[in-house]
Each structure stands twice: as structure tokens, then as C-alpha cells.
Amino acid sequence: MPIESHVELNHTVVHAKDKLASAEFLAGILGLEVGAPFGPFIPVDTSNGVTLDFYEDADNPVAPQHYAFLVSEEAFDIMIGRIEAAGVTYYADPSHTEPGRINRLFGGRGAYFDDLDGHNMEIITRPYARAR
Questions:
Q1: What is d(CA 55, CA 42) in angstroms, rounded to the nearest whole number?
Q2: Hey, what long-range contacts does 16-19 have (CB within 8 A, 24 or more apart)?
Q3: At residue 131, does pLDDT exceed 70?
Q4: Could you report the per-residue pLDDT of 28-38, keeping only the tens digit for each?
């Protein structure tokens, strides 16, 4: 039995070669605001209260991570348009073998794209169904 059953993700660090450029890129795609610098971080807040803290480490390679964002059907179309306008390829799958296509998992739509540092970003319109 867990001691505390109410746990929420508050923030996570997103490593980048250029923290401002990376924060601006993702915020632009997702339609979010880039916050004022907070210590060594450039924050981007999501609508569910999670902050992506972009952190610059120009001396070390960035280890690509995966970040998934749950968005509305309407926002999905707008974001795909922004991805295309940025000249970025999106994919139906996380392995990036189906360029220019979306998936239709769990009754929704989804797409993957790389950010400026090779992080595998995902936008989905339905949460993944998990067996409990």
C-alpha cells in the first residue's frame, strides 16, 4: 500500500544544446508560452501544470528522450500544420519509419517528430489504453 496515493509530475528537465531555441521551437509547435528564465532553466508550462525546464549543456551530447503530449482534436490539426510549416517531418510511429503519416491508436490520432536536439516528441488525441 503506497504511503501517498496522490502523486503528480511537477516538472522535468529537457536537455538541449541551445535551451532558448529548443524551448521556443517546442512552445511554437504546441502553442505554449516560453517563460522567463528560472535559474539555469528556460521553462515551458503545459496546461496540466507540468513544467518542461530546458537546460543547456553545450559540452555534452544530448541523450534523446521521449515526451508525449495529450492534445485536443482541433489542436492536433493546428500542430501538424505548425510542424509542416517548420519543415519538420512527422511520423506515425516512434521508430520514424512512416514519414508524413499519423496513427489512429485507441480511437484517436497521433504523430511523432524530433525536436532540435533529437528528442522524440509525440502528440496524441487520446491517452493510451493500459491494462490494469
A1: 7
A2: 16/54, 16/55, 16/56, 16/57, 16/62, 16/116, 16/117, 17/56, 17/57, 17/58, 17/62, 17/116, 17/117, 18/56, 18/58, 18/116, 19/54, 19/55, 19/56
A3: no
A4: 999 999 999 99
